[in-house]
Design brief:
The complex is a heterodimer of chains A (333) and B (426). Chain A has a single domain, classed as ABC transporter involved in vitamin B12 uptake, BtuC (Orthogonal Bundle), CATH 1.10.3470. Chain A is globular, with a radius of gyration of 21 Å. Chain A is mainly alpha-helical. By secondary structure, chain B is of the alpha/beta class. Chain B folds into two domains: 215 residues, Response regulator (Rossmann fold), CATH 3.40.50.2300; 132 residues, Response regulator (Rossmann fold, 3-Layer(aba) Sandwich), CATH 3.40.50. In chain B, helix 2 packs across helix 12 and helix 12 packs across helix 13. The longest helix of chain B has 24 residues. Classes of the chains: A mainly alpha (333), B alpha/beta (426). At the A-B interface, helix 1, helix 3, helix 5, helix 10 and helix 12 of A face helix 2, strand 6, helix 8 and helix 9 of B.
Chain lengths: 333, 426
């Protein structure tokens, strides 16, 4: 029989890995856009919120812009009176995210080609605030329950199967079923994204653009198309992140703040590596949970996770500025 | 002659006193991370004032006007809103934020404008001898902490010695407010208190709930706001913590907190200082004069929800203070200073509440120069996930003022000393 404290530590580590996968899901969207366009997309968290809001709105048959419509026309419409199945709703939201990607490219970034990275970053800040307000106007600010059938709660099977490991104070490992699903989804997502980038014409074009815009243009790759494609993929990844986080906490406007959890992941994993986002997420998830368990809660009053993740990332930055998997930047004079 | 008559009428009209509006600033937050709580409060507040205008022609013949300013639950923006609206004759501020409240206390005192922080803000503002312009009737955080402990005492036949109680709190000024009271109550009743801080916004609480699962406390209480509430209740359901042993403060006791967890939230409890639901005659008037007339601040579907009711109740108390001020000063168009007088002499009786169509909606109480905090009473509400509604499972009862009053006196005395203030009401 193993000591309970050791088993609790293992449980914390397992949960840290699961939390890390959820952070990585958000970080993936940042990586996709940064890799292809050099834009640090501040709006990635809001895209997750917008995707989740739109999903719930479509599933529940909510009338978009109902408040605005009712104010202008004196009507009282709120719902269409139907419920759309989750799978179909997700497909419809993907169409919306492609439309959003086209709008972002057509109305913003097409006009900013060749601008300094800081200008592009500022544009994404504007985009984030615009989308937050737009989402509010479209679907309102009420908290919404997101239920697409993902199981939640501790897995009884794992609890019962592992309870023999410890003494009477150990009740078996707690692993949230939602986070198991999120991990599986993340694995599939990474495989799909890597396969897309490696084996499809569009994926190879995307990588070419990521390597060198000018060279890609010279061989006839449409920069505009690739950017729409990349923003669409980032929108899809944001939707997946929004679904997982929204299922945990309900869909509400602080969902956009999950982006803050992705930043240390990016600092660790590098801004240009899909596997880096996953590994970075896992390191941050495990690191912050273990630190809270061993030091934060017993000695520092708790609530150390937010700042510890950034501290960990800073330490990595000092020794490896490009992140674990990022490309080393060598500029020759 | 005709021309002279016209000029005379014009002159009389120009000289006649213009009846201004009774201005109620609403420092709301309809955007941002805490909008889901800010919107129903602002809607309830606005709808009550609209009801008075539409049904009664205002208060004492003067129409009310809501002056809304978006704070986003941001303290700096809240202060900006105060500065931007105080010149409009704003009668009373209700910022719905402890952070903003702390910043506004010296400002409202200097400007002689009253501020009402019902169930939040600086708890020791209950001491009117120090805080002349701040009111937090009918209950404050320390009352809330005591009400939670009283409920635990009720459940355990008056003995909670050795029981393990964990406090999950928002790691902010708001969340930390009740800690001192809980610590005093833990000493008095002999229960073991463990503090679990959750950082803003509270989207990720796995560590805290794993700790709760490991330590198996008898009870968990929560001081949360925004998404923190919903996540905590979901996590509690995930680890199969018995919901009837999980008790939140009133800001953790809204539909927003429990609905995302679905059936898992069934049995969760929260203390409240006002009644729940929509089964009150005033809501019939509200439907007739405001909602059906298309004049509601929101869609009209929040009526009876916990935070809407709180906003509605806050507006009712403000309106009653206006009536009181009008009576005291003999004028209908009152100033903020007169409003302060009206609040300081406010008396809410069950007869008044019944007349307003809100029988047993809140406690009967009397505000005095010394006591700006009201009776500190509350009840326990429990969530029924099947019917999606809160129900009171206890009567309204008092909190342990033998513990709370010395804390109020000490904290307010420290504030007075820091600011070299003379005490009032002597």
């Amino acid at each position: 029989m193993l000591p309970d404290q050791f088993l609790f530590g293992v449980e914390v580590m397992l949960n840290g890995l699961m939390a890390g996968v959820l952070y990585a899901l958000v970080a993936l969207g940042f990586v996709l856009i940064f890799k292809a366009s050099g834009i640090f997309n501040y709006a990635q968290g809001v895209m997750a919120l917008f995707g989740a809001l739109t999903l719930v709105g479509i599933m529940d048959g909510q009338v978009p812009f109902a408040h605005l419509i009712n104010s202008i026309f004196g009507t009282d419409v709120h719902h269409f009176g139907w419920h759309v199945p989750a799978f179909l709703s997700i497909l419809l939201v993907m169409v919306v995210m492609v439309g959003l990607a086209w709008c972002v490219q057509h109305f913003i970034f097409r006009h900013l080609v060749g601008q300094e990275p800081i200008i592009l970053f500022m544009a994404t800040i504007g985009l984030a605030y615009f989308m937050e307000g737009f989402g509010d106007l479209m679907w309102n600010s009420e908290i919404k329950k997101l239920d697409i059938g993902i199981p939640q709660g501790g897995s009884m099977w794992i609890e019962e199967a592992t309870s023999f490991l410890g003494g009477t104070n150990f009740y078996g490992f707690f692993i949230d079923k939602l986070e198991i699903v999120a991990s599986l989804v993340a694995v599939v997502l990474v495989i799909v994204l890597v396969a897309f980038a490696q084996y499809t014409k569009e994926g190879r074009a995307m990588r070419a653009v990521a390597d060198d815009h000018q060279a890609a243009l010279s061989v006839g790759i449409s920069l505009s198309f690739i950017w729409v494609l990349v923003w669409s993929l980032a929108g899809f990844v944001a939707l997946v992140a929004g679904i997982m986080w929204g299922a945990k906490s309900g869909v509400q406007f602080s969902l956009s703040l999950i982006a803050l959890k992705a930043l240390p992941v990016l600092m660790l994993g590098g801004f240009t590596s899909i596997p880096g986002a996953i590994v970075g997420g896992l390191i941050v998830g495990v690191g912050e949970k273990i630190f809270e368990f061993l030091i934060g809660a017993p000695f520092l009053g708790g609530a150390t996770e937010n700042w510890f993740a950034y501290m960990l990332a800073l330490v990595f930055l000092v020794f490896r500025p490009q992140g674990l998997f990022g490309e080393k930047i060598i500029e020759r004079v | 002659m005709k021309r002279l008559a016209t000029v005379t009428v014009a002159a009389v009209m120009a000289a006649a006193p213009v009846m201004a509006d009774l201005v109620f600033p609403s420092l709301s937050y309809r955007t941002g991370a805490y909008a889901a709580g800010g919107i129903p409060f602002a809607d309830g507040y606005a709808d009550y004032m609209t009801l008075l205008n539409e049904r009664d022609g205002g208060i004492g013949g003067v129409m009310t006007r809501i002056l809304e300013c978006e704070t986003g639950y941001n303290t700096e923006k809240g202060v900006e809103c105060y500065e931007a609206t105080k010149g409009e004759g704003s009668l009373v501020y209700q910022p719905l934020s402890t952070g903003i409240t702390y910043q506004l206390i010296p400002k409202v005192t200097a400007d002689n404008i009253p501020m009402h922080t019902m169930g939040y803000g600086r708890t020791s503002a209950a001491n009117g001898k120090v805080f002349s312009n701040v009111f937090n009737y009918p209950a404050n955080y320390w009352n809330g902490a005591s009400l939670v402990v009283n409920h635990l005492l009720d459940l355990n036949g008056g003995d909670i010695k050795g029981k393990k109680v964990h406090l999950v709190y928002h790691n902010s000024g708001y969340g930390k407010e009740p800690i001192r009271t809980f610590e005093e109550l833990a000493k008095k009743h002999g229960f073991e208190l463990t503090l679990l801080a959750v950082d803003h916004p509270g989207q990720e609480q796995k560590s805290q709930w794993l700790q709760i699962r490991r330590e198996r406390p008898d009870y968990v209480t929560m001081w949360g706001w925004g998404v923190m509430n919903a996540v905590a209740i979901q996590e509690a359901a995930n680890i199969k913590f018995p919901m009837e042993n999980f008790i939140g403060v009133w800001w953790s006791g809204s539909e927003n907190a429990v609905l995302p967890a679905g059936d898992g939230a069934h049995g969760y409890k929260a203390i409240t200082f006002h009644n729940v639901g929509s089964d009150f005659p005033v809501f019939g008037d509200l439907a007739k004069y405001v909602v059906d007339a298309g004049k509601a601040a929101g869609a009209g579907d929040q009526i009876g929800t916990a935070i809407y009711n709180r906003g509605f109740y806050a507006a009712m108390l403000a309106a009653e203070a206006v009536k009181n001020a009008q009576k005291i000063h003999g004028v209908a168009d009152i100033t903020p200073a007169m409003m302060r007088d009206g609040m300081e002499a406010l008396e809410i009786t069950e007869a008044v509440m019944t007349d307003l169509g809100m029988p047993n909606f809140g406690p009967s109480f009397k505000v005095t120069c010394e006591n700006h905090g009201g009776p500190g009473t509350g009840a326990v509400a429990q969530w029924d996930a099947t019917n999606k509604k809160w129900s009171l499972i206890s009567d309204f009862s008092g909190s342990d003022m033998s513990v709370i009053q010395p804390l109020i006196d000490a904290d307010s005395a420290a504030y007075a000393a820091e600011n070299s203030m003379e005490t009032r009401c002597n």
